[in-house]
Specification:
- The protein is an alpha/beta fold.
- 36% of the residues lie in helices and 16% in strands.
- It has nine helices and 13 strands.
- Strands 2-10-9-8-5-3-4 form a seven-stranded mixed sheet, sandwiched between helices. It has a two-stranded parallel sheet with strand order 1-12.
- Helix 3 packs across helix 4 (100-112) and helix 7 (257-277) packs parallel to helix 9.
- The mean pLDDT is 97.
- The structure holds pyridoxal-5'-phosphate.
């Protein structure tokens, strides 16, 4: 039996994708070698590469006036690359501080550019999301940065904020689990290891022509244009996650694309929040109900000892990855794309039984 992997990242991957990749790993399509050993300039790899780029564009509904890029360095590198490329010398940007990741993006941006908090959830200890009209966007702002889902706090932005400047978004932990109005965005990025692929890169969607002139003076790797002009083949790309991601995207496409994944994700989240809400306080969610994440369900039990006992019990049933982030403790069940409803049902059943036994 496969382990029920609720880990927050790297994510569980579809078992049929892993089996297919294992079969192809040593001898890719009769070529006598592994795809991983091939030149990234070979026609065989080129086809795989472009198929994954196209699949992401199709599944995410990315319009023709935006580029899709694959860049090594994960979402963390994008915290700096975004302001470095988009902000000219006299420009600023507002950041919506919803939790750990948004603050990380803000801190890195502050190291290279002029940025300010357009909203800060500190008053509510980062347990909620801003109302759409709650942002304070300073005059002359180039963009507003949002984190569509806070992976650690378990907070989801239920709606995009109202702004008259473009949005830039970190979508690492909910990419493709909700439909996206691309007209609002100049840039979005996601580390692929949360929903879509093994670790090793970020997928980036950038509107054509939005880079500041100053970006031309950046080292080439740090320029979005350098990657875009070469279809993300300007240097050796991370071939392994690109290969696997193509397979994952085709599975998502076959099952109704973003709409299908959105519905499956909402149902998984609802299953767990219902158990929490109906537990008479045995399980507690620290997050404002209006901002509850669909991909990272954070909850607490009465004591840390009880939480540890719960996790031990879970592991006996092959349910793993439930420990909250080391910065906040507690429990976190991550419900990424390849984690299926039966795994969630197994966790829900454990939660109900454990609560009944420990009241
Ligand atoms: C995991 C995560 C990151 C960091 O991603 P890396 O690819 O590990 O750099 C950034 N933002 C969010 C929202 C995340 O969940």
């Amino acid at each position: 039996m496969r382990t029920h992997n609720f880990g927050a990242g790297p994510c569980t991957l579809p078992s049929d994708v892993l089996a297919e990749a294992a079969e192809e790993l040593v001898d890719f399509e009769g070529s006598g070698m592994s795809l991983l050993e091939m030149s990234h300039r070979s026609p065989v790899y080129d086809r795989v590469h472009r198929a994954t780029l196209d699949a992401f564009r199709r599944v995410a509904g990315v319009p023709d006036d935006m580029d899709v890029l694959f860049v090594q360095g994960g979402a963390s590198l994008q915290f700096a690359m975004a302001p470095m490329n988009l902000l000219g010398p006299a420009q600023r940007a507002g950041y919506v501080l919803t939790g750990t990741w948004a603050k990380g993006a803000f801190g890195d941006a502050a190291a290279v550019a002029d940025v300010y908090p357009a909203w800060d959830g500190a008053d509510s200890s980062y347990t909620t999301a801003p109302a759409p009209d709650a942002l304070v966007v300073e005059h002359g702002s180039r963009y507003v940065h949002i984190t569509t889902n806070e992976t650690i706090g378990g907070i989801r932005l239920p709606e995009l904020p109202e702004t008259d400047v473009p949005l830039v978004a970190d979508m690492s932990s909910d990419v493709l689990t909700r439909s996206i109005d691309w007209s609002r965005f100049d840039l979005a990025y996601a580390g692929v290891q949360k929903n879509l692929a093994p670790a090793g890169m970020a997928v980036i969607v950038i509107r054509k022509g939005v880079e500041a002139d100053a970006s031309q003076r950046l080292p080439r790797f740090l320029r979005y244009r350098w990657h875009a002009d070469a279809d993300s083949l300007a240097h050796t790309p991370p071939m392994f996650p690109i290969w696997i991601m193509g397979k994952v995207l085709r599975r998502i496409e076959e099952r109704g694309g973003v709409a299908g994944l959105e519905a499956r994700t909402a149902r998984k989240a609802e299953t767990l929040y219902r158990v929490i809400d109906e537990s008479d306080g045995f399980y507690r969610s620290p997050v404002d109900p209006s901002a509850r994440s669909h991909t990272n369900v954070v909850f607490r039990l009465a004591t840390q000892d009880l939480e540890a006992e719960f996790r031990t019990e879970a592991e006996r049933r092959d349910i793993i990855g439930l420990k909250g982030h080391r910065s906040v403790g507690g429990m976190r069940a991550s419900l990424y794309a390849a984690l299926e409803q039966p795994s969630v049902d197994a966790l829900a059943e454990l939660m109900e039984g454990f609560a009944a036994d420990h009241r």
